[in-house]
Amino acid sequence: MKWYRATLALVLYLLVLGMIYVVHMRFGQVDVVFYASAEDVLAATVIVASALFAFRLFGVFCNFEKIQIATICLLVGYALAISVPTVVDRSLSFYILEKLQQRGGGIRMDAFEFIFTHEYVKEHRLVDVRLTEQLQSGTIRIENGCVHLTSKGNFLAAASRWFRKNLLPRQRLLMGKYTDDLTDPFRHSFPTPEYLCNG
């Protein structure tokens, strides 16, 4: 009986989350897709948690069990927020599939660098999207046409570089060859270019 009602609560949660998400994404203003999705997850969790405590249908659960069910709903929602809208919004892999479909199902392999640098960046407004996300996250600030790291951004960049160098795979398959190139992508970087900001 409890398993049935717990499953019912989870199904109710997914329905509520789906409705909130669709309304928010279609009619609301969104700064960052992941943050907006996380807000939807929290709103749906509050609604379902309230239902768990308010409706007699869920009276078979003690308060601790209700909190556990609400926590499970929150974790499921969080996993969905990362795994679906955020991945679709940010994924270069999905872009490749969509681009292949747009171009009739096949593209010459030697054209992909051109596609990434000339079509992907423009079609997805990649620079605008990523700078907006970083501004909203507080990791950068923009002043007088220059983008600067904040202290938070500097910390995250250092943590990311450490993780990349120490905990990403050293033998990763890239186009038929195992390499550690992506543990230090700046290894073969160009000399200091002329796009730096003074000061």
Helix share bin? 55-70%
Radius of gyration: 22 Å
Q: N-to-C terminal Cα separation, in Å?
A: 67 Å
Low-confidence stretches: none
- What overall geometry do the principal axes of the alpha carbons give? elongated
SS content category: mainly alpha
Q: Sheet with the most strands? A: 2 strands, antiparallel
The percent range for strand residues is 5-15%
How would you summarize the topology of this molecule?
Layout: H1 2-27, H2 33-54, H3 63-90, H4 92-102, H5 112-123, H6 126-137, E1 140-143, E2 146-149, H7 151-167, E3 172-174, E4 177-179
Antiparallel strand pairs: 1-2, 3-4
Transmembrane segments: 41-62, 69-88
Keywords: Membrane, Transmembrane, Transmembrane helix
Question: How does this model look, in words?
Answer:
It is elongated, with a radius of gyration of 22 Å. The protein has two domains: 2-90, no CATH class; 93-183, no CATH class. The chain is 64% helix and 7% strand. Strand 1 (140-143) and strand 2 (146-149) form a beta hairpin. The mean pLDDT is 93. The strands form two sheets. Strands 1-2 form a two-stranded antiparallel sheet. Strands 3-4 form a two-stranded antiparallel sheet. Helix 2 packs antiparallel against helix 3. The chain has helices spanning 2-27, 33-54, 63-90, 92-102, 112-123, 126-137, 151-167, and strands at 140-143, 146-149, 172-174, 177-179. With 199 residues, the chain is mainly alpha-helical. The protein has seven helices and four strands, in the order ααααααββαββ.
